[in-house]
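User: Run a structure prediction on this.
Assistant: Running it now.
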Amino acid sequence: MTNKNLYTLFEDHFPSDKSAIAFEGPDVQTFSFEQIVIRSAQMANFMTDLGAKPGDRVAVQVGKSVEAVILYLACLRAGLVYLPLNTAYKAAEIEYFVGDASPALVICDPSSLSEISKISTKAGVLEVLTLNAEGRGNLTEGAANCSFDFTTVSRASDDLAAILYTSGTTGRSKGAMLTHDNLASNALSLHKTWRFDEDDVLLHALPIFHVHGLFVALHCALLNGSKIIFLTKFDALTVTEYLPSSTVFMGVPTFYVRLLSELGLTSEICRNMRLFTAGSAPLLEETFSAFSEKTGHVILERYGMTEAGMITTNPYDGERKAGTVGFPLDNDVRITDDDGKIVPDGEIGILEIKGPNVFKGYWQMPDKTAAEFRSDGFFITGDMTRKGDDGYYRIVGRSKDLIISGGYNVYPKEIESFIDEMPTVEESAVVGRPHVDFGEAVVAFVVPTASTSGLQASDVTAFIKEKLANFKVPKQVYIVDTLPRNTMGKVQKNALRELALKDA
């Protein structure tokens, strides 16, 4: 049987001269492809020596470093299931993920070792290891003493490669199970569609705990054997400094808004660039137009989600239309009504997809998985979509109660459940409001209990900050007497959005 391990696919496409640079950047050590192969072998040996077996999960909450990428590759090589966690997640969130996924190993920043160790002991984790933002910790120290040789574990195409948690509409996060074939098929499609070639250099400024930075950007570059200029965080000035040395840049809309404020962003410094892509949140038409005018480059907007990677893309050759997400990649797609019946072209419905990139299901949630798939295998994305007369697809809204802030998915129910834990709160409702920088901002409306007086917005914010990642913390909290309801008693969130927008 041919080994379908995703790492094998990557290594087969590394340059023949393994001394070629794989990673470099202002705040990272330079690594060659040969070093990537050796270091990932050492890490794979170290983790298996600790008792991790193929199929075991490895939960990772660490800063962005080349060593963190090597850890991901090591997990693939060892047949382990990689479980990246947003660095902004707090203890209450981590406790759920670790308890739900039952990982064999947890890797965290040394600063959170004490807290994470307590959570991990309770969950029966074999070992908690450390890796800081500079790529140092007992993970790299232990791996340094291990053999350079490691035979990549054979995996079937349907074996799990990663689990990525998505926020849940009911407050409980769901672990999307992604196979080696899910990730490989999507990487191959993007590599071909976006015309990667041997001279490409990727300028990487995205986080690597997210589909966009980890699977879309890194996979394309690794599959191409390209050099990656690796920035540990996004900084508009730093990006402009490295654009002349790059050919490809991938970002969220917030990145492009901030780049446009840089005086140094000109068509001249973009002279070697061939591709700018945007995703993870809607790109405003004014941002699209302003960037084209300032740089001479037209941003390629695409659409994807955790459960399927990239689903549609504007064309590489041909017109890239503002406000659209282009055409299907290697997916079967259809737009349906609530009953699953296909709607005529031009009408709005729910996008459903089927293809090799679509995930295997939700971890330990068979009922939820079954509810999200049609009987013929199509996955119900929940995104309201319209196919125009021009054939381009447009995401026009969301049937799921979702806020996208700074490129991250935020489900109101999760935040509401934590706010409602406050003994001084009767109930709450969370909505999104347009924000020039983040796309959408989280806004909360809170009703105090009858016996409570003097509840302040700052009280709510302080309580939430201890529980949830900062990007989920409401940018504004309104203390109100009641929440608007319809005749059936359901909270009218449209009315709350209008109030929040009017106040803004």
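The chain has 15 helices and 25 strands.
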